[in-house]
Amino acid sequence: MHLARNSANWQRRLRGLLLVSLVLIEKEVVSQTPSHIDWYVNSTQAVISGFKRVYCPPQPEAEEEICWNTPIRVRRSLEANAFADEDDTGPYIVINVGVVAMIDFMEQARIASMEGDDPRCFTGWLDAMQRGFIVNSQRGQRGLKRIDAIPSIVSYARTNRLCRGVNDQSLVAAIKRTGSLYSKSVEAGIVFILLHEMGHVIRGHTKQPPTSNAESRRNEYEADDFTVLASARAGQNLMFNIETWFLVISQGSTIEWEKNSTHPLGVKRGLRFFTRVKDALQRSQYLRRRLGPSNADAYVKTIDRWMAPLAACVSSIHAGKQCEPVDP
What we know:
three-stranded mixed beta sheet, two-stranded parallel ribbon, 14 helices, 64% helix
């Protein structure tokens, strides 16, 4: 029995989880085995190699040089984050395999949600993560070691009898049925993270760390803008991994949250990002030729559909009201 009819409920539940706890995810530890870690490291390094060949050459000369010369270090850490920084040798980017695992888990869960027999399996998985995030928040405040709060859907399925039919074999079969879409989606998520962090380096954010949350939020917007600009220059598809942007859009829910955060409200960030993407799809002749004018126009229509609820959500938040953003 397929769960396509339950996908809207699954998305609403996931959105609710993330609105409450996404701010904690970058500090979370993803549960993985050593063999999985090796796979994530090797896969990420392969993406990095292709990333530089595709995205560095089309940039202006000074930015291209920075792009080629900025080392990207893949760490075996299972913390779900990535960042740009600078030391005596110059700027560098770090991507922990935990953030790649997080993207992978989200994509696996999306695929598995179409394969299982009972939607409560997946809502239970989300609830388990939420409980883990809350426990870790409490443990962090007390200076205690965090627990592994982000299990894979298959790992969780072993603990829940409602998850009959969700196992390694069924998930592999489901992934195979998606063709190359699964691997491309995970790769797109990694590329977005790399472009964003490279944006921090090229825009000089690592040389002058922000002195306030407001400045940090401006830096985040600038790094997002770079991802769009760099992709358009390279003639690459700007429609990044949907799960990655689903996470971004779900970050924060009030103006007060934003004032105390180093990152902008997710819905504001998403609205700005998709506005930039739409503009590039309409104005960049090179990008339109690469994608095909009809495909570019189809993407614009899709973005318009996404932007309407995001804009309404931003207006509601500024009016002091709650909103539930519609995910892409």
